[in-house]
């Protein structure tokens, strides 16, 4: 789990993202603040939609650590937290693809549009990584994208 900066309305906002060991995108959320409440909301949303992880690797962000510790305090089986600099390289490399698409845009005009467009960028990135493939059905990236719209 990591966050990256996205410019919205001339101010920096935070895009929380999570990937698994294989580099597949698990979840993402755009937030205005980088604090315990924002991190906790992201983790709770991600756990609800994707299930409880065994281990979460985070950077040295105090907000992420505080949010995970608060979540662990309410659980019977705590989530293992790893804070190692070099274990977060998978997600840092994954941020590059998102930044490559958003940098030429020079930011977004408002938060709502940023949230919608980043959702589309994330889905397109997931298709490009081969994450949305149906087992047994061969489709091109364009066909996968069109099947989502149908």
From TrEMBL:
Would you say which domain of life the source belongs to? Answer: Bacteria
Annotated ranges, domain DDE = 1-131
One example of the protein's molecular function in GO is: DNA binding
Q: Which UniProt keywords apply?
A: DNA recombination, DNA-binding, Transposition
For whether the record's keyword set contains Cytoplasm, the answer is no
**A GO biological process held by the record:** transposition
Read off the InterPro entries from this record. Answer: DDE_dom, IS_Transposase, RNaseH-like_sf, Transpos_IS6
Task: Locate the coiled-coil region(s) and give their ranges.
Answer: none
Protein name per Swiss-Prot or TrEMBL: IS6 family transposase
Species for this entry: Paraburkholderia franconis
The record lists the lineage as: Bacteria, Pseudomonadati, Pseudomonadota, Betaproteobacteria, Burkholderiales
């Amino acid at each position: 789990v990591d966050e990256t900066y996205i410019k919205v309305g001339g101010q920096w906002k935070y895009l929380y993202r999570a990937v698994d060991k294989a580099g597949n995108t698990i979840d993402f959320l755009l937030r205005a603040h980088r604090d315990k409440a924002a991190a906790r909301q992201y983790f709770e949303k991600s756990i609800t939609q994707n299930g409880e992880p065994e281990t979460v690797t985070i950077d040295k962000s105090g907000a992420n650590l505080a949010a995970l510790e608060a979540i662990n305090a309410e659980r019977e089986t705590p989530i293992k937290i790893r804070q190692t600099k070099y274990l977060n390289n998978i997600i840092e490399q994954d941020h590059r693809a998102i930044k490559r698409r958003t940098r030429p845009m020079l930011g977004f005009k408002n938060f709502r549009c940023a949230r919608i467009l980043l959702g589309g960028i994330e889905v397109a990135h997931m298709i490009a990584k081969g994450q949305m493939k149906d087992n047994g059905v061969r489709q091109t990236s364009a066909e996968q994208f069109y099947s989502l719209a149908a």
